[in-house]
Task: structure prediction
Amino acid sequence: MARFFEHTQSVRVSRHCPKGWWMENVTEHVVKGTCLGPDCTQSVFTPSAEGKTARFDVKTERWSPEIDDATLVPFYSVDGVRYFVDEPDGAFPEWAIFEVPPVYEPQTQTVHHDGKKWRVLDIKTGARYWDKEGREQVVAEPGFVLPDDHTWEAPPHVEEGFAVVLEHGKWRLVEDYRGQIQYQKNDGSVSEEVTDLGPIKQGWTLKSPNSPFDVWKQNRWQYDREKERPAKAVNERHWRNGKLTSIIQRLEQYERDLRVPEAYRTGALTESDYENLLADRKALCDYPDNPDFPFGERPALRSDGKGALS
Result:
């Protein structure tokens, strides 16, 4: 509530901002019948030390407990830009750095804080640098810090089949088979694409097998008859069973026809055909027992294509 003075006089007051924060202590000359401005109070706050402040509550006409004035404390970004908070009791951002950056030449240099200390950096905007696999990049910002596993040194010329890698700051040529298919020597049916730099893994090869029945011998793929034997036997038995089923059906038809008068027979087999079918049935039954099965020649069938079922 405004207090009007009964006498012209000088009074000691504290001035504060519209939000109540203390600004200064001054002597105000007031004329009889007037009052102090809304930014002044006769409840004088005196900081205990430089950088201290408090906040005046116009409703209670009391000052808050004294605090450090945060607006007086400069802080910096990692690139050395200086900031201040807006309020005396304001919070500093998590990234705030309170250490003052070193002196540097702004035209040719910049600064960067690496989390532990400040570094003065030469401005290299537009300069080229390379990652650990030799990919070229260009500096796009003044405060650039060369990342780990990168270098300012251009990689050497690379021949086909090789690539460069950066190791301990030095370029090294390594074999590059990426994108090619490698095969497991113990099982040529197992393959995978090469995705990493360097020599082919132990026990693998880039040479592709010529057939599913190849084995790795003497540093190359070689056909293995014994490896093919199980699959070959299955195929040959499948062929034998198909032929044998057809022949048995024709024999049974012939035998059925013999039980009816000749005028009513439907088959076209002759007695000679019948004997050929019997011989073929015997040959097919014996085929799997041949010593060179399944790689020997198939039995020659006398009845093939003759006397088909009607």
Notes: The longest strand covers residues 22-30. The chain is about 15% helix and 25% strand.
